[in-house]
Model the fold of this input.
Amino acid sequence: MTQIVAPAAIRAAFSAAMSCMYRAEVPLYGDLLEIVADVNRRVLARDPDLDRRLNASGEHARLGEERHGAIRVGTAAELRLLARVFAVMGMAPVGYYDLAPAGIPVHSTAFRATQAAELAASPFRVFTSLLRLELIADETLRRQAAAILAGRRIVSDECLALVGQAEREGGLGAAEAERFVAAALETFRWQGRAIVDAATYEALLAQHRLVADIVAFPGPHINHLTPRALDIDAAQAEMQRRGMAAKVSIEGPPRRAVPILLRQTSFHALSESFKPTGGGDAPAQHTARFGEIEQRGAALTPAGRALYDRCLAAAGDDLAEAFSAFPDDFETLFAHGLTYAQFLPTGRPGQADTIKQALADGLITAAPLTYEDFLPVSAAGIFRSNLGAGDTADTYAAGGSQAAFEDALGRAVLDPFALYAAAQDRSAAEALARLT
Done:
């Protein structure tokens, strides 16, 4: 009987293959990897406590491999198909993000692993956006875009056959898993050609650059791949020192002693040549793909997220001042129910019936549970900084709809807060069971 390859192993192989492909397509991505690796080495060298905590929690091993990618699809059928592809790698849709309020005509989810052990094995995640065709104002162009999307196939026959095999047999053997990684990778490759002529491309571009990026090409080429830095301010400074066209400001919360949620920065999108249909040999230029760095902090509870949103809404020119009401030491954050925690035995002998007792007796220590998801405002800020000027108004009149997105997906997205609460409970039970 064929031995099934663990989804996490397939996910890790796919993540590594995607990283190699994107480095070849966008060489500056390789520079970002070097910057992040150097920054992380320096941070861990000067902060032994952080180094020990990351080792104890299993995050140290995953740090150098951690990536998130971002793709954009055009139809519900494409979204459902990619959900099946990601399921082979043990990735489920988590959370709902509406980007329309920031003038981006998509709504999104993140495909990722959901269990701590799976995340430790491979934290690769893909922010996946679905075009909202109804937001294309020009009715004729909207119908044309729908027809173009209906006529393309984004996943190869070989990849689809392997997905079907995995669904029937509960996974893939080693040879099939290797073929699957290679076939799935082609779905996200930049092919340097359009599936529309130059005039249609320009019409789509005039509507919105993201519409052109989604509709005019053969499939959902990866538009950025993001390594995780432990000090994004240092990484940003190094990007600027090297002359990269980096964002002026970092998206997300301000710099803090206890990082929370997610901070992101990027270099501006590159201009890449492509060949329209029916246009002879003359290439055109497309600007959409960029390089990004992220720093992940503590996952917040609903109460913590509500406080974060209030601080963000009150922010003017001074983001740090707006967040002065947000506690900046982990003990206070956890005590006030603002953040989730993971629990690690200290090695001191003793027994306790509850986490509260174990913490009080010094048998267990609490540390931040890492935020594994995204922020709609930050995602929109990154997208907009790489779309250039002259796109649509600040917002679309039509608000997002999680129900509509889930109908397109064919299933409900998972609630990230429920996942964090479950992870905290599992961590508590495991830590208590390890006491001696």
